[in-house]
Amino acid sequence: MEEGTLKSPSHCGVTYGAGDDGDTDPFQWDTREDCEVRQILDRVADKWSLLVIALLDRRRLRFTELRREIDGISQRMLTVTLRQLERDGLVKRTVHPVVPPRVEYELTPLGGTLHTTIRSLVTWTERHQNEIAAAREAYDAREAAEREAAERETARA
User: Fold this and answer.
1) DSSP for 72-102?
2) Distances from the Cα of 5 to the Cα of 1, 28, 30, angstroms
């Protein structure tokens, strides 16, 4: 067995070899279908979860308020997303015993720590959006030039 390899076949954690500086290997995240890290990343990084977590930062919202705020989400997808986030301990659901029942959602302390991470990602995106836009334009221009060159070559043949 290689140095640093975990012995448990059911564990899909990151392994480190001799001389590693502790950086994680991103390919380890996706080596097994039942890997919890992959499942968690899939859950918290999807667009609906990100929007729900962002909206619930420091406030409680009712289902209808969330649905109104999230453009394009269906009632079913919002229900599924909230259930998954609740199951993962990121969102707390409170049912108030009134008629009709009033249900509110809020971030748990764990969900709040994830929001902090999401905020960092959004800040990075805002800071670099112009660079990304310029890179996209340059890429699109190169692709268009290559297509035109290929079309001219095909026309000559």
Assistant:
1) T--HHHHHHHHHHHHHTTSEEEEEE-SSS-E
2) 7, 11, 16
Q: In this predicted structure, what is the pLDDT of residue 5?
A: 39
What's phi and psi for 12, nearest 5 deg?
-115, 30
**Helix H or strand E encompassing 61:** strand 61-62
Provide DSSP, 90-147: SEEEEEE-SSS-EEEEEE-HHHHHHHHHHHHHHHHHHHHHHHHHHHHHHHHHHHHHHH
pLDDT of residue 64: 93
Confidence tier at 24 by pLDDT (50, 70, 90): low
Q: By C-alpha distance, which of 52, 47, 45, 87 is closest to 69?
A: 52
Which of 96, 19, 17, 111 has its CA nearest to residue 63? 96
Tokens 């599924």 label which residue? 80
Question: CA-based angle 129:141:135, to the nearest 5?
Answer: 20
In percent, the amount of the chain with pLDDT more than 70 equals 78
Q: Are 82 and 95 in contact (CB under 8 A)?
A: no
